[in-house]
Write a structure and sequence with these properties.
Blueprint (H helix, E strand, L loop, with lengths): L1 H5 L19 H4 L4 H7 L61 H23 L6 H9 L5 H21 L1 H8 L1 H26 L15 H12 L10 H4 L21 H17 L2 H29 L1 H8 L7 H4 L16 H15 L1 H9 L4
Helix pairs in contact: 5-8, 6-8, 6-12, 7-8, 9-11, 11-12, 12-13
Length: about 375
């Protein structure tokens, strides 16, 4: 739960010859002419039909036989099959060593250190921060831990999704980086409070069932939790954008986990909630799961709405060959997986997620002890 919430803050020039065919924004579309596409994308075959139904004034008359592209430096890059539809979105979880700057990562580590220090002083430390006061204020709503748990989740959801909905306007007013700092600066403390309260009170409330001694339950819960973190939203992997070292962008992802479900974070959160509720089996865990799943279901709808506004026809094209329900688009033939699809996961971000997930499991006792010391 902690990693899922912390990494859930989702926040590219268009070139017809770019290797990922990045999508033009609404502001760019008016300057792109059909002549430009015919001349540069399809010079030898201007009448080739598009691989998906055309849209009015479509900006994506891609050939059904896209050129193969190769990049040996890109970790886990898959080859484009001539029978596959060309992507209108971006390649997710891609990590190219040739594009990395040591200075950017040094800057990132510096920012991370400053953020963690400020978070501790301003919010976490009971002697200087406001975190305990916030928890105490919310706890006055009810003596029920379930109600307080739902209230904390509800507050976080309103702030998180509300700021996400205001992103376009906010970035116009103060810029992409400043809005990212504002977004994280408000959301992160609320996420910490919700996580700590859940850890400290997860065994309170009414016990509804007890299955821990049942054979295979521990293994089922462990595997479900492990898998859930592979459904992280692809923008999570863009750490330099998350920290506003690079200018944050709203991406239209289409590869990797997005082929399985268009809303991987929602699916991962549902898996995590079901696994933890099955293991703990009480009313507080149930309340936390209801709140988190409800928030992520709304986030899925809101995410589609925002992408439709930003990317219009491109999003509709991607939407037609993806699904919210995992594997649904694959099973009904709308999504065709490349022969070397597995390579879209053999990438450094997924290796990192594997290490972090295993580390979080073994560090559970330390996380719990740190939460207990706060007395929230």
């Amino acid at each position: 739960m902690a990693t899922s919430i912390f990494l859930s803050h989702p926040l590219s020039p268009f070139s017809p010859l770019s290797k990922h065919h990045k999508i033009p924004t609404a502001k760019q579309t008016s300057t792109i002419s059909s002549y430009h596409f015919n001349k540069h994308i399809l010079p030898n075959n201007p009448t080739t039909k598009t691989p998906f139904p055309s849209f009015p004034n479509s900006l994506f008359p891609f050939s059904s036989k896209p050129r193969k592209q190769f990049n040996p430096i890109s970790v886990g890059r898959t080859q484009t099959d001539e029978k596959d539809e060309i992507l209108v979105g971006e390649d997710s979880a891609e990590f190219e060593l040739s594009k990395q700057k040591i200075s950017s990562w040094v800057y990132f580590l510096g920012i991370l250190g400053v953020v963690l220090y400020a978070l501790n002083v301003i919010w976490i430390d009971n002697s200087t921060g406001f975190g305990k006061s916030f928890i105490d204020a919310v706890s006055t709503i009810s003596d029920s831990h379930e109600i307080v748990m739902l209230s904390l989740t509800f507050i976080f959801a309103i702030v998180h999704s509300g700021l996400a909905s205001l992103r376009d306007k906010g970035e116009e007013l103060i810029g992409e980086r400043a809005f990212r700092v504002l977004f994280a600066g408000i959301s992160l403390p609320l996420a910490v409070s919700t996580i700590v309260y859940f850890i400290n009170h997860r065994y309170d409330g009414v016990q509804l069932w007890e299955l821990k001694s049942m054979a295979g339950i521990h293994e089922l819960v462990w595997f479900s939790n492990f898998i859930s973190f592979f459904f992280l939203y692809p923008s999570t992997f863009n750490l330099l954008e998350v920290a506003a070292v690079d200018k944050p962008k709203m991406h239209l992802w289409e590869t990797g986990i997005m082929r399985i479900t268009r809303h991987p974070q929602m699916v991962g959160q549902v898996i995590w909630c079901l696994a933890h509720t099955l293991w703990i089996g009480n009313s507080v865990a149930m309340a936390a799961s209801v709140g988190l799943i409800g928030h992520h279901l709304f986030g899925a709808w809101n995410g589609d709405r925002r992408l439709a506004i930003r990317y219009a026809e491109a999003f509709e094209a991607m939407k037609k060959r993806t699904s919210v329900i995992p594997f649904a688009a694959i099973l009904d033939g709308r999504q065709k997986l490349p022969e070397d699809y597995y390579k879209e996961f053999i990438r450094l971000p997924y290796v990192s997620i594997t290490a972090l997930t295993l580390g979080a499991y073994f560090l559970h006792p330390i996380m719990q002890a740190a939460s207990y010391r706060l007395h929230w």
